[in-house]
Amino acid sequence: MQVYQRIFEGRRMSDTDNRAPMQSPRPIAPTRSKEEITRLGDEIYERDVRGQVETDHHGEIVSIDVDSGNWAIGDSILDAVDRLRAQCPEAIDVWSLRVGYQAVHKFGGGFLGIAR
What Å distances lie between residue 95 and 18, 66, 67, CA to CA? Predict the structure, then answer.
């Protein structure tokens, strides 16, 4: 009898492997459109976060869970998102921005800071 092989999440399983497939604890893709996440993230930042971070955290990254309004700050996007998910593991729709700048990253020359 020929044993059939299939690939499942990076490991080989035979047709005799009776382990249940692993289930993801939460969706891995955003549940809202990019436009809605952007709009909600900007609203939460302006309303709740900006006053707390503008003076002491210029240039750092803020990540906001647009569903709960929870937020965290870090030196990079990964750092900020990791900190956010440590306090709010169910965060899926996350908006990140650099404090005091119009964009998180820049390509090429030019100043991206916000005029005061």
Answer: 40, 7, 10
